[in-house]
Specification:
The protein has 385 residues and is mainly α. Helix content is 82%, strand content 0%. The protein has 16 helices and no strands. Its main location: membrane.
Length: 385
């Protein structure tokens, strides 16, 4: 299954590659950073259209096929984005990246949950692979800029890795999807939307939005925020995102271990969301204290990007074990709404100031904490009853 995780290392590139090249892309397209931010929102549009479809298909078709479709779409995105000067074509490429993301998720998450007997600790490692990609890419972008090399090489590296992984996955045969009996499906359907479970479903869908928005908001604006508000150098500003990624990678292994030994998922979700909120508050107030900004970026990555979104999805899958693919699609459908709306909202706020655009993420962090707190209380009440 190493190839599945390598796909998410590449996806780590895809998540932030446009944001990390915003200035270079605006120069290449002869447009403003605001327009580049709007192009980035196309990723959310692609996810929005694709997630429910790919989620349903994952419960019906061969999941390896979906994964290959996702890889092909990402390859076209990587090559197409740096070979076009047309904003409309660039927006279409961003939409295609969103489709790629949804196809990979729909094929990969249910597969990993099923091979681990219904447990979700394997999906947490997906976040580790993504974080590794998010750590490497800013360093690559900064290195290219420092040596005045073409920014498009970062996209070409992404495309090359996809080609390598296609060859890696060719001989691998995926296990058939575990089928449930008709009786089990009927029982699951009858219980699926009754009483407090309706509220739990709504809260988890909302968390699909907030947990994705929290990470996207941070990764899109932290570099420019550090440069324009804290007046950091190019390397120091990009370094904050790399530290965020290091924190995420460390958090993934900690969370993986805690879930493996049976730690309560709700305790982890509440605690990590609270820590993310507090670290973001300190970071925004860090000012010129580079060491403090570095430390808070590390802690924010540890808490907000350690796999809490994937853990939330695991909780959701446990509510509907007969429809893991569809649940994955629905959960990330709301995440895709975040991918679409965050660049639009933050881009509009940036007209006032970059500081305002970045600081608004505090509202998202607070909402994620409250959602998990309420969900835990309702779930505990449901178990008691």
């Amino acid at each position: 299954m190493l190839g599945l995780y390598l796909n998410y290392f590449i996806h780590g590139f895809g998540i932030i590659i446009l944001a990390q090249n915003m200035t270079a892309l605006s120069n290449s397209w002869h447009t403003s950073i605001k327009i580049v931010s709007f192009v980035i929102s196309g990723i959310g549009i692609g996810r929005l259209f694709a997630y429910l479809l790919t989620g349903a298909l994952a419960d019906l078709l061969n999941r390896k096929l979906l994964i290959y479709l996702g890889m092909a779409a990402y390859f076209i995105f990587a090559v197409g984005m740096v070979t076009t000067k047309n904003i409309a074509v660039a927006y279409a490429m961003a939409i295609l990246a969103g489709v790629a993301n949804s196809a990979l998720d729909a094929g990969t998450y249910p597969t990993l949950v099923e091979v681990s007997g219904g447990n979700g600790y394997g999906t947490v490692l997906i976040k580790g692979a993504m974080s590794a990609g998010e750590f490497v890419l800013p360093l690559l972008v900064a290195w290219l800029a420092d040596y005045q090399l073409w920014f498009g090489w970062s996209f070409m590296v992404m495309a090359g890795l996809l080609v390598v992984n296609v060859l890696n996955l060719l001989p691998i045969t995926f296990a058939q999807r575990i089928q449930t009996s008709a009786a089990a499906d009927s029982i699951a359907a009858s219980r699926s939307m009754t009483g407090k479970k309706v509220v739990q479903t709504i809260l988890l869908l909302a968390y699909g939005y907030s947990s994705m928005a929290l990470m996207i908001w941070f990764t899109q604006w932290i570099t420019i925020f550090a440069q324009r508000v804290f007046h950091y150098s190019n390397l120091a500003a990009h370094g904050l995102l790399s530290l965020y990624s290091i924190g995420s990678i460390v958090g993934v292994f900690v969370l993986f271990y805690l879930l493996k030994i049976g730690t309560n998922e709700f305790i982890l979700l509440i605690g990590l969301n609270l820590l993310a909120l507090l670290s973001l508050v300190v970071l925004i107030r860090a000012g010129g204290e580079v060491w403090l900004a570095n430390a808070m970026s590390l802690i924010f990555g540890f808490s907000a990007a350690s796999g809490v979104m994937q853990t939330g999805l695991t909780v959701f899958m446990k509510l509907y074990p007969a429809h893991r693919g569809l649940v994955t699609g629905a959960f990330y459908f709301f995440g895709s709404i975040a991918s679409f709306t965050v660049p639009l909202i933050s881009g509009s706020l940036s007209v006032h100031s970059v500081g305002t655009a970045f600081s608004a993420n505090l509202l998202v962090a607070g909402s994620g904490f409250l959602l998990m707190l309420v969900l835990a209380l309702i779930s505990h009440s449901r178990e008691v009853n």
